[in-house]
From TrEMBL:
Name this protein carries in UniProt: MFS transporter
Compartments where located: Cell membrane
Any coiled-coil regions, as ranges: none
Topological relation to the membrane, as annotated: Multi-pass membrane protein
Species for this entry: Spongiactinospora gelatinilytica
UniProt keywords, alphabetically: Membrane, Transmembrane, Transmembrane helix
GO cellular component, one term: plasma membrane
PANTHER family: MAJOR FACILITATOR SUPERFAMILY PROTEIN, MFS PERMEASE
Length: 402
């Protein structure tokens, strides 16, 4: 799973690094170029449930293969769209490429299927951490990859998408050939002596039964809310930071450095977050994450347009708070529902997380445009505080150790 995540992360980062710019070049419109990011998030959301359904019926291999296979197809559609100078076609390709993000998100849950009691968070966190490598390598490969296009009679812009198709194909091969035995199917067999009956129930799983599993568990509901809120808080502030810095006269290199450090905050400490979640409990780490997000909002929101150092510190904390929410929240969600319903619940979680993230970016733009960056930080802080209150009641339960 770590190998697939590293390679898949390269493909996702390659697509993200150039998509908005290429859409702008093809359309000549800045507003239309902004749809590139929306298309990728929408694709990840739309493919989360089909991938989860495939995992429910055929195991993790089938679900991840669907996600990465969709990403390969999306890259090829993007190449064809660039050849035809069609920005609508490119947006369609980017929606399918969202399968890469959906696959990388689903991969973290695969690491928990066979985790011993008390170790789920640290196993999950290692898969999350491995995304750091792909996130760093991907954007740096975009410019050299332009050389792949002309020898095939294609525009240089098609080169990065060809490379992305290749790396997603490698992820597909790694999962299909290397993820054996399938961890979810094996975990189901180990969990019950009536394996065939449990598997039959899995084939009948729907969104409705996923909601039933979540409604039946207060811990699952709180985990779902924490994942959605921490992701929304992160993308809302992160998405508007380049605009805020640009107003202060910061150049592309400065903005790029700030965002790189933010990404490092998101992923680099995830193994420590996972270990801590196993040691002191998932609710405690979720509350720590909420506190870090509040500090991040206060630090970045109170910084002026020229306060690059303060904004950078806030963005690093924002990434760390997101890591706490994703790792501890995903582990808590997984452990709070029956194993035969986990893929559907996990897929629904990723769907809601991406929808909330997309909505957060739209609202963030409206708040900053109508009020200020500081107002966005205040609104984010209020949202985080409201989510943190129910989590505090969970601290009375005995923490996990391991």
């Amino acid at each position: 799973m770590v190998a697939a995540q590293i390679v898949g992360g390269i493909g996702v980062a390659l697509g993200l690094s150039l998509s908005a710019w290429v859409v702008y070049k093809l359309s000549g419109s800045e507003p239309i170029s902004g749809l590139a990011g929306t298309a990728g998030v929408l694709g990840a959301a739309l493919l989360a449930l089909p991938a989860a359904k495939a995992a429910s019926t055929g195991g993790r291999r089938r679900g991840l293969a669907l996600a990465y296979g969709s990403a390969v197809a999306g890259c090829l559609v993007a190449v064809a769209a660039i050849a035809a100078s069609s920005w609508p076609g490119l947006l369609c390709g980017l929606v399918l490429m969202g399968g890469g993000s959906a696959g990388n998100l689903a991969a973290r849950y695969s690491a928990t299927d066979l985790s011993p009691p008390g170790h789920a968070a640290r196993h999950l966190s290692l898969v999350v951490w491995s995304a750091t490598i792909g996130s760093v390598l991907g954007p740096n490969l975009a410019e050299p990859a332009e050389a792949f296009g002309p020898p095939l009679g294609l525009h240089p812009w098609a080169g990065p998408f060809l490379l992305a198709a290749a790396v997603f194909a490698i992820s597909l091969a790694v999962v299909s050939l290397g993820l054996r035995p399938d961890p979810l199917l094996l975990a189901r067999r180990l969990a019950t002596a009536t394996g065939p009956a449990a598997h039959a129930e899995g084939r009948e799983r729907t969104i409705r039964t996923a909601w039933q599993a979540i409604r039946a568990s207060a811990a699952a509901r709180r985990a779902l809310a924490a994942i959605a809120v921490t992701h929304t808080a992160m993308v809302s502030i992160m998405s508007m930071t380049p605009v805020h810095l640009d107003h202060g006269g910061a150049g592309i290199s400065v903005i790029g450095l700030v965002l790189s450090l933010h990404i490092a905050g998101m992923y680099a400490l995830s193994p420590l977050v996972g270990w801590l979640a196993d040691r002191i409990g998932r609710p405690a780490v979720l509350l720590i994450g909420m506190g870090v997000l509040l500090a991040a909002a206060a630090l970045s929101g109170s910084a002026g347009e020229h306060g690059v150092a303060q904004i950078t510190a806030g963005l690093v904390l924002l990434g760390v708070g997101w890591s706490c929410g994703l790792v501890a929240g995903s582990a808590l969600l997984t452990e709070s529902v029956p194993i035969e319903r986990r893929p559907a619940v996990q897929g629904l979680s990723d769907l809601l997380m991406n929808i909330c993230g997309a909505a957060g970016t739209v609202l963030a733009g409206a708040i900053v445009g109508g009020l200020s960056f500081g107002a966005l930080a205040v609104a984010t802080g209020i949202m985080v505080t409201l989510c943190a209150a129910p989590l505090a009641g969970m601290l009375t339960s005995r923490p996990r150790t391991g």
